[in-house]
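tool=predict chain=A
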Amino acid sequence: MRLFVGLGSTECGSLIQYPTDPAHWNYCHFHASNGIHWRPVFESSEEQPTEYELVLHRHNSCKPYQGVFENFPDLDEWSTKDVFRKHPSIPDYWEYRYRIDDLVVFSTGEKMNPIPVESRVSGIPGIKAALVIGNKQLRPGMLIELDDPDHSLSYDSGLPFELQGPFKEAVGIENDQNSRDAQIDEELILIAVPDRAFIRTPKGTVNRNKTLELYKAEINDLYRSTDPSNAKGLNDLSLDMTSQDSLASDLTRLVEKIMANDSELDEQTDIFAAGFDSGQAQILAAVVGKALVRQTGQPERNITVDAVYRNPTPRKLAKFLTASQNPPGHDLEETSEFQEVLQRSALIPMLNVILVVYAKWVTRYSKTIPDTPANLEPNVSTNSGHHVLVTGSTGFVGSHTLRSLLRRQVVSQITCLNRSGANESKVCLQRFPGDESKNHSVQLNFKVADLSEPFLGLSEKTYYDLQDNVTHILHCQWAVDFNRPLTHFESNIKGIVGLIQFAHASKHNSQVIFLSSIATVRNWKEDRDVPEETLRSPETTETGYGESKLIASLLLDQSVNSAGVRSTIFRLGQVAGPIEEWPEGQHMSWPRRDWFPTLLEASVQLDCLPETLGSGNQIDWIPVDTVAELLSDLICSPRVYERDNSTNIRYYNLVNPHQIQFSDIVPLLAQRLGSSEPLEVVSLRDWVHRLSQSIDKPGSRSNPGLRLLGFFQGLARSEKAVTLDTTMIEERFPRLGQVGAVSDRWISLWLEQWGMA
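tool=predict ok
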């Protein structure tokens, strides 16, 4: 007997499938006539997604097989809410995983698939069924239905004794597979009572939503009673602020108490390296903030989660809190850490990369630094075409640029260096089906790499082979975290050094194209627009992320001056979602964890929208597909790159030269996001205040905006927008002037891509 997995629904009918190999009977192989688009569920700019929702897109060629659009003629897309995982080695084989409705979304924005742990716990003899709880909370727990309902009457504090061991073992196995934010907390266990059994469907499966609604009051009470910030000794906490030493000691003990895992820390311990998670950071900020306000009587002494991230040791946080002359949220270590990391990067053995500001190291390393570059020839195309080395090809900008490069006739080979596995990385091409065949001559390779390691984490043979053939390096890979301090990004800085070394010794003097960020100039104070030139002061930066990008730019700048490495640096502004219509209706949408979609989600929960964005009120956003084409232009169009040996580095401010104000799109957003009537429009300061207050309101701590509260507070602190000069980039890249300003059509398209329309 041969087993075959079928899939269908009342709305769609049955989807067309090919027969699968008998050994893989549990996989589906869908026909192209279904018009399927695979949308990443856990989309991230740094991690390659492994699970995808099956979404149907209307397409004329698929019309006879797309019954859903006969039933719903006004729709162009149908989300099935069915999630699949791709087979690790067999193309187009998909394994069904779960319904997207099953996902648990925590207040930190972390998502969890509850099915594996629910299935494992439900398999324990004595347990009839289990559901993960914790939606819109900081951490997950579990609601359990016992086989013997009489147990529920006598064990009001948790599981019966004989089930505790098997339960702990089962949960431990699954916790090992989950992130820190998705660990089942054994304190958060609720036992169903006999007169309220789990609600089931006619098929006999548990109806998740109705069952959780049945126990809503008990679940809320459970979270309130186990909230660490309300625990004895935390809510009425006093901090000894007589000295920095005493405060650091109190903060160390407080962190240990919140972690509650017998950890022994000292004042210099990086609490996040020790296992502190984002939920615990929110608790620490709330507890310390309440204590400061209570002890000083000054509401402005409250602190944000951002301050915790940027001062990740008890000693640094104590120094921050005792420095009353600095406004809340200002990192006292910013400038010193900037110089410290820049100096440490100079200690990495580099070929002819000399930092002028640290000339004391020149003597020590002068014997290992050649006087001239090994090759001063420009990175012209080889006889077989351009060979482009791309880092971060699975990210938002990287994947779109890869798609663009695949269509360029002068590109003969692309090598992608990613942290994920080579086979897994190829999934990024599935977002753009058919693009690989647009240029049959392109050889596409994926390599597992670590740019901070010797030889970029590659074998020596692979490294030297690439040095002999690569003509261009497009560096898109960078950790994106606006909460962490500069020291968090040191591996990224080592990575840029590794690429400089690679380019310096490459046969074709490979051109390095680096995507810097507007975060390097967010604190620009001069009256003129930000120029397209080298800027060195860390005072213009915003957050550790911006500081790290500035250091990378300075390292490239010095490598050009001292070693002749050819470089182009783009100060990239806000990259928005795609706007082009693609033949297959495919897209990789603007990541929902970015600040703008997060702001919209937060606004829906707050039932209000800010009327301005403070220092970010000027909307000069540029669509990701435009960015991708422009980067490809630089690589593929000789006229774009000047052969000028006196100035071999180019800075371009990559923002939209056609600008509007955020207030111009507020009416549309308020209308589209409101359920029955438009959202209330309030001042930015009022909006930020409502967001910050939501952490103390039961049921409101889930607001995703809390994750970026520090960022939004930064916008509200200044009304002055930073304007970037685009004279040079418009001259070099004519397509930039043709893109136009952000329009209502673009906004509507992005809302549809996020499912907010």
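The mean pLDDT is 79. The chain has four domains: 8-100, 104-225, 230-332, 340-659+725-754.
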